[in-house]
Amino acid sequence: MQLVLASSSPRRQELLQLLDRPFSVVKPEVMEQQQDGEAAERYVARLAIDKALAGAKLSAADAAVIGSDTVVVCDGEVLEKPVDENDFRAMMTKLSGRAHQAMTAVALHYNGATNVKVVSTVVHFKPLTEAEIGAYWQTGEPADKAGGYGIQGRAAKFVTHIEGSYLAVVGLPLYETEQLIQTAERS
Ligand SMILES: Cc1cn([C@H]2C[C@H](O)[C@@H](COP(=O)(O)OP(=O)(O)OP(=O)(O)O)O2)c(=O)[nH]c1=O
């Protein structure tokens, strides 16, 4: 089975390598826009499927194509990548001193069928000061990350604990990804 990762994320590429399966990468452009009334879990699943399908258009017909999407959800509100520093500061102020969910969906399109899994992890942040928030923005890390933080980077010192899958927060839950691939192989 020829495996393709439809993603521009270097983190997803690094993580997928840990499955020890050869794969190639395509980088489709997919519009990310939550619909009115669309629940976070449905939204993130839809984007992962859209990315897998868009990737399939750029791949061989018999390829198995993986798409994935990560969002942070706080009080039902979806936080994507911050558009600027003010947006980032507003996000960090929301996340400070409390728990939120990091949701990652991974979709696999193979042989005309698309399967998707959504993995939701509860992430607990310590209370953040204005100074900590400002210094974190300056590192450049937040800009390309859902919710404005990278648990694998300097935001690690803000996270008291998580309940769920660390790799799902980072962007690609490998247990679920491997399960999807094995299911496709058996189909
Ligand atoms: C919460 C969190 C997100 N992220 C990243 C994972 C994703 O790359 C990014 C969320 O944006 P996504 O839109 O899910 O992905 P992307 O645009 O980076 O890549 P592509 O759509 O091409 O696959 O945030 C972290 O790296 N660490 C974290 O702790």
TrEMBL record:
Q: What keywords does the record list, in alphabetical order? A: Cytoplasm, Hydrolase, Nucleotide metabolism
Coiled-coil portions? none
Give the CC-aspect GO terms. cytoplasm
Catalysed conversion reaction: dTTP + H2O = dTMP + diphosphate + H(+); UTP + H2O = UMP + diphosphate + H(+)
* Catalytic residues identified in the record: 69 (proton acceptor)
Entry EC number(s):
3.6.1.9
GO molecular function annotation: dTTP diphosphatase activity; UTP diphosphatase activity
Which residues make up the annotated site Important for substrate specificity?
A: 11, 70, 152
A GO BP entry is: nucleotide metabolic process
Name the domain of life: Bacteria
Report the cofactors. a divalent metal cation
Top EC class for this record = hydrolase
Q: Write one Pfam family the protein is assigned to.
A: Maf
The cross-references to CDD domains, in alphabetical order and at most eight, read: Maf
Annotated compartments: Cytoplasm
Does this UniProt record's set of keywords contain Hydrolase? Answer: yes
- UniProt keyword ATP-binding present: no
Task performed by this protein:
Nucleoside triphosphate pyrophosphatase that hydrolyzes dTTP and UTP. May have a dual role in cell division arrest and in preventing the incorporation of modified nucleotides into cellular nucleic acids.
Family, according to the entry, reads as follows: Belongs to the Maf family. YhdE subfamily.
Q: What is the official name of this protein in its record?
A: dTTP/UTP pyrophosphatase
Organism annotation:
Pseudidiomarina halophila
